[in-house]
Every structure is written in structure tokens, then in C-alpha cells.
Amino acid sequence: MKLEALTQATGEWLKGTGPESDIVMSSRVRLARNLAQFPFVGRASEQDREEIERFLRERIAAAPVGRELEYIDVGGLEEVDRQFLVERQLISREHADAQGARSVAIDRVEQVSLMINEEDHLRIQCMHSGLDLRGVWEQIRLVDDQIGRVVPYAFHDRWGYLTACPTNVGTGIRVSVMLHLPALVITRQIDKVFRSLHKISLAVRGLYGEGSQAMGDFYQISNQTTLGRTEEELVEQVGDVVPVLIDYERRAREFLVRETQQNVHDQVSRAFGILRTAQTITAEETMQLLSRVRMGVLLGLIGDLKIADINSLLVRTQPAHLQKIRGVELDTKDRNIERARYLRQHFEGTGPTAN
Amino acid sequence: MKCQQCDKQAVFHITELETGEARELHLCEEHARAYLNQAETGGGESAGGSGGLSGPLSVGQTADELAVLDKKVCGMCGITFFEFRNQGRLGCPHDYAQFEKELEPLIANIHGATRHTGRRPDRAGSPLPESTGELTSVIGLRGQMQQAIAHEDYERAREIRDQIREIEARWLGAAGPRPAATEGDDTSATP
After folding, report:
1. Are B118 and A171 a contacting pair at CB < 8 A?
2. Angle B141-B146-B151 from CA coordinates, rounded to 5°
3. The complex's ipTM?
């Protein structure tokens, strides 16, 4: 697969379609699976890792889902290309940074991705735009069944699917939704919301996964436990809380418009102004400003822009994407200049609405 | 090793697993007790979300007991319980059977449950075994084979390789393509 072809597409999670896509960016489920006849990746020799990789690749190719997948040898990629896949959420940062034989298989629409030799031998991921956890679960269940028929999953009667880390044992499932919550951030209610999520043992992370601080008001909510409840129950656990969060965010947006109309309009317009005119700009600032503009569009404060376009800019202004699009490697300083140029070109001919 | 908070000997070695990252703590008895009490009662909201490995594993276990526990080894992948506690990652699927008793309180602490109630691999129409127990023994054999090769004992390595092939042919033979190495085995008893 040519990664260049991917730069032309937006990728599933940024399509900006699907239910509640004004607030819910994407719905995702991942399953951790291991082979019974190999040590876990962390304890596997280089030779083991190569055998694991080959075994899974050959076996999965024989399953129906295998025919729809393209393989990428992650170990053989340049750093910028690995980073590119991380930015598209097709592989994890850990997978990009790891050593030894490892690969990823992706379907054409970037909904399904199979990471081989991440922390576990196999990590199956499925992602849809907007709020669609049911649909994602139905799809990943089939993929898991197909692979389970040709691959001997490590499974224990009592402990369920066996994983390298006991925090994933049992179902091996991680259900997550990515939410855009700018109004809750502006009205300083976000911490309160997160505290209550922790109480019902849900985890909150920033856009690019573990540890990283939330960038641009994008947050990922996911289940914390994986054992003792069925997959459906865990999908529901995350699914149940989303409408509540959507409601909070909508109310916060209404409050902002009602009580601080001028302020919000000013903030959003300034953000848009910087994006349209800056000569050098970091990825973080871009993300922050795009987040504000995105909210502005949804509140009707900025015309002329489509949500799908802003979503697309969110990923295309990331460091590796920018370099792939421009076709050259750039250092941080040059990237910031190039990013500003890219944004100016993109917004040419658009302007803030006069009202 | 000294306690991280004073000059006394560290007798409690705790591994905290938060959002997948292992954090090591080495404490004397006094500081360990204070730490564990705080984790149990005072941690409150922020501690609620973390999947700590420390609590039940350490409470009520003396340094001696822990030392014995730490020396337990998995017969398949060779990981010791000590290594697991340090890294927060197990070595192979067999560890869940090997360390079942030790893992139980820890898993209960992380998940609030000790039994899987979800899906099972769908083996309908598949030749794969219902239980993966015997396949797991390949892990130990593969380790022995690699060791034999390292010691240039090629005859022994070949013996073990044949053993591995025999087990794999039995369990994996018909489920999809075989790696080229085992083609020509007596699995093709077609009429």
C-alpha cells in the first residue's frame, strides 16, 4: 500500500459524518488477542517475533477479512511514515516506537486495522465516524470470529482471553469514543465531568492516547475494566454515558451563546483570523485554534466552512501529514512555516461572516 | 536496597500499574504501611480509576513471603514473579495458570471480578483445540530449542524442533496454510 494514497483521503474518524458528529468525532473498539504457542511480545526473541508476524499474516490472509486488507511492514518504515500512521490512528505510538518485526493491516476505508506485535500479538481495531458503538461492535465481532477460526487464541476458561498485561485480561476489549468538548472546557466544567467519569471507572485521555494532554479540547472516554462483564455490557457502559456528555456540552454551548455571545464570537473570530494569516504556527496552536473555529461553525458564528474540512485540517496539519503532503522532510521550524502557508492557502477566499 | 523515603532497608517492593505504565516503589515497612493505607482509604476519587497492582498483593505479605513468591518461575517462558512485578507484563499465556493464585487478588483489585463472562473463541467448524493448554507447551520447547542452538547442540535442537512440529501439526495442521517448513507431513490422508 502506498501511504501517499492515504494522504488524499481523510480517514474514517475525521469524516465528520454519522450520528452526533457535531460532538462525537469517532467510536472505536479494540480487542487484544494473543497466540497460545508463543511468549508475549515483551518476552519474545527476535526470531519469535518474526515467526509470530509471519504466522498471523499468513493465517489472516486465508480468512475472508484478509482479502480486504493491505499489509504494511511497520518495522521497515521511515520514522515519518510511522508517525503518519499514528496521526491517522491506524497504529499506536507504542507500535510506532517499538523494535523488531511488526506490521499493520488496514482495510481500504480505514475502519479496520490489525496491529501485529504491539504489546499483544494481535490488536484488532475498528473505528466509525460519529457515535456508532453498536455498529463498530457488530463489525469487529465478525472480524474477531473469522480470525479466531484460523488462529489459536490464548484463552483460559476462567480468565478469558489472555493478555500481556492483566489490566486487559478477560474480554481484552477497549471501547472508546472521541469527543469534542470545547464549551465544557471554556466554562470550566470539564474537570467536574471527568471526576464523575472516574467514579464509574471510565478513563479519560487526550486525543493522542495515553498520558498526552488533551489537545484542542478532544477527549477520549473508554472503559477501564475488561473482566467480569460481557463485551456488550462494556460497550453499553461507555455508550450510556455519551448522551449525557453530549447533553452537557450542548447546554454549555447554548449558555455561551446566550450569556457571552460577543465574547465567544470574538474568540472564534480571532482564532479564525490567526489561522488565515499566521506566517508560522505550531501543531498545538493549530489544533487549539481549529477546535475553536470548529465550535464557531457549529454555533453559526462562522459561515463558509464545512465541519468535514476542519476535521481534515486537524490531521493534515500534523507534522508527518504535512511532510507527506509537501513531499519533503522538514524540521520543526520549517514545518511551522509550511503549516501556516498550508492553512493560508486552504482558507483563501473565505472570510468571517458579517453579523 | 534502601527505602525511597528514608534510610532504612526497603522490604516492600511495589509496582503500581497506572494506565499501563509501571511505576516502581521500594519502601521500608513503616513507609509502605503509610503508603498502602493512603492508597486504600485516602486515595479517593483520583485513585479510583487506577488499576494498581500493589494493594492486595502486598498487604499482609511479609518480606520473606514476598521473597519466596518472587522466585516462582514459569516453566514455559522462564519469567519469575519478581520480573513480572517489576515490569507489570506477563511473559506468556501459561503464566495465568502458573501464577493463578498470586494473580487472583491482583486481578480482583484491577477489575473487581475474577471470572470471564464474555465471549469465547468461535471454534465451530475449525480444527483448532477448544483448550489451548497443549499448544502452550510449545513455548517452553521453543525456548529450549533456542538454547540448544546457542550451545551448538544441534542434535538436541533438531529433536525439539520435531517435537514442536508434531504438536503444531496436530493442532494447527488443517487451519489455513502451513508455513513451508512442515509441508509433506502425514496430514494429507486424502482418499
Report:
1. yes
2. 120
3. 0.87
